[in-house]
Amino acid sequence: MIAEEFKQMLGQKSVIRELSEYAAERAKQVGYENVFDYSLGNPSVSVPRAFTDKLIELASSEDSMAVHGYSPSLGITSVREKVAASLSERFGLNYKKEHIFMTSGAAGALAHALRAVVTAGDEVITFAPFFPEYTPYVHGLGAVLKVVPPDTETMQINFEAFEKMFSSKVAAVLINTPNNPSGAVYSTETIKKLAAFLSEKEKEYGHDIYLISDEPYREIVFEHVDAPYTAQYYTHTITCYSFSKSLSLPGERIGYVAVNPDCPDAALIITMCGQISRGIGHNCPPSLIQLAVAQVLDMTADLSVYETNMNILYDGLTKLGFSCVKPGGTFYIFPKALEDDAVAFCKHALKYDLILVPADSFGCPGYFRMAYCIPTEKVERSLTAFEKLAKDYQ
Amino acid sequence: MIAEEFKQMLGQKSVIRELSEYAAERAKQVGYENVFDYSLGNPSVSVPRAFTDKLIELASSEDSMAVHGYSPSLGITSVREKVAASLSERFGLNYKKEHIFMTSGAAGALAHALRAVVTAGDEVITFAPFFPEYTPYVHGLGAVLKVVPPDTETMQINFEAFEKMFSSKVAAVLINTPNNPSGAVYSTETIKKLAAFLSEKEKEYGHDIYLISDEPYREIVFEHVDAPYTAQYYTHTITCYSFSKSLSLPGERIGYVAVNPDCPDAALIITMCGQISRGIGHNCPPSLIQLAVAQVLDMTADLSVYETNMNILYDGLTKLGFSCVKPGGTFYIFPKALEDDAVAFCKHALKYDLILVPADSFGCPGYFRMAYCIPTEKVERSLTAFEKLAKDYQ
Q1: What distance in Å separates residue B271's CA from the closest CA in chain A?
Q2: 8 Å CB contact of A250 and B68
Q3: Does domain A50-293 have CATH number 3.40.640.10?
Q4: Are B179 and B155 in contact (CB under 8 A)?
Q5: Cβ pairs bridging A and B (under 8 Å)
Q6: CATH architecture of A4-47+301-391
Q7: Chain A: residue nearest B139 by CA?
Q8: Which residues contact B51 (CB under 8 A, 6 or more apart)?
Q9: Nearest residue on chain B to A14, alpha-carbon basis
Q10: What are the structural domain ranges in chain B?
Q11: What confidence tens digit (pLDDT) does each residue in B341-378 have?
Q12: Considering only alpha carbons, which residue of chain B is nearest residue A134?
């Protein structure tokens, strides 16, 4: 009596995982330094020293249960208070602990946010290019995920297509800015236009429409880039955050749901998250990690290498004739492939030990994603390989 | 568009939580030492020093990503190998990493095990007294949880009632031994009888029936108690484990699913767990904790205090006229209340600052649970309070 639903999913092996396994194999043959593995979004910089120090201090505590004991189901109260205070100070909204729910990373945050405001039969709209895991998140609820085609000129929102696809069945709109995989950051203009449209539709349909803002890359924004905080522009915003990228600890599974304090149901949604946890096997992020992260909330790892790498790649690739929107943040860049079939293109790139991810699964065929969270010297050396690759298409 | 299903759940405030909040309030008035709080199953002993040392050693590593990086979706490979080796050595089954899936505690393990072998419309059978969180676990799948009434004479399985309730719709049987709340440990005789019955039913109905064995208290078994390892007796066993109690770190959310290696679908179920994780927001237990626990797999915290406390309580309570099956493990004892209505009894006990949990929500009305993971001297002092309580019923 094996559950067929999940058995079927086994067939769909992740392209990214396949590529990264290939890269690991290839590294054994030609040496790790000669494989330009741009496949995996694993941060390449160290956790801040302050985080490690706080973690060790906590672990050394005589009061074992104060550190390793059960967390309340909504998260450790002092941690929620600190997260609320930090968000309020930074973004000017009046967050209290009642608006914060601690989660196992952004995945945990999205799982709860979606369950809180979306039920079976509802529609959720997102925008290509998009993080492919949104599909199982939404399908698992019995809801429908509709993907708005990309605006490849700007990698902002394709409002024309969006407005056409919108209906009264839409319970939530799911955005990801700074964006994986495009690296684009939605501008204040984009967010304002989106907020105005949703407010209008709320009035027209007579029900709330939630904006779920997936922001694990919020702290990786490059110089002079306009990066608005979504919740400031729309009342029914549920912010989903992860410290994975900002603190370089993706394996420690720590993040939160923050509901806009101006949302009348904010506190209700948070207490509901505690109920949603029951049954899905979530039950709070690790206590030790909650407590340690709460000590370094306003810190980040040294993220500057990402901007350095981005500039090298953006300049190098555009010079070689690639077309590409300049990333405003994240550690991704998203150029157009040199042939229509990005899968064929990425396969061809393997000839030069360039591991690139075709963007078909991101809802943007013809493009490819590069995760440049790798050493800068390797990024530089990879340009020679790109030169050879580009020549093959001249 | 708030999801009504979870909003409705908010009404059902947990009795245990309510009592423990009352106990905390009362402690402020009369002093912590004067409140005998038996409500919460939070381990009272420290994590082993070796765990803390390994954790600090790992956290101090120069290679930040090797410690804090993403875990593969089934768990860190070296950790799965070590868990498999430890189980094989201890229980004589040939576990390999292919049979192990790392989870966020037992809750995560149960969420995956149930989803792997139970689908909407199926029935799951469990035995009273039972852990009340099984209800949302099973209902969340659209399946039906059937609870076999208790055998209060022995707190083993009431086979007569069980056999009557069994039907071809049963996809899985869920047991918890050593048991929360009764403290009973299923004997070899019980497990053999259960296994034989299920094997017979598998033949009769022509489909697999899984035995999901929830074993977070496996390491807390008292002297001379017969405590069989369930998977040794039944091929289709899925073992759900948590290190919360054995290592005293319930807040760190670490456990595993182990499928009997002799089960033909063992490796399939484990890879399916990786797919189940997608969408429910699970995504692996924390890397640092996985790595640290793997270093102390065959260790436990000093659990001896639980047996000491149990003996004091068992002797003291039976002398006062309470009837009670002697616990074989865990840190729970489960006496019969001195009046039919255990809720009224527990309310009355508050008069003497005894915080006891009525067992109605455990499917065993008329009984109450005591979690004696508190200091021994407090257990001793509490007997005076019990004496006063018992007098009121003479």
Answers
A1: 8
A2: yes
A3: yes
A4: yes
A5: 234
A6: Alpha-Beta Complex (3.90)
A7: A279
A8: B247, B249, B292, B293, B295, B296, B299
A9: B275
A10: 4-47+302-391, 63-294
A11: 999 999 999 999 999 999 999 999 999 999 999 999 99
A12: B279
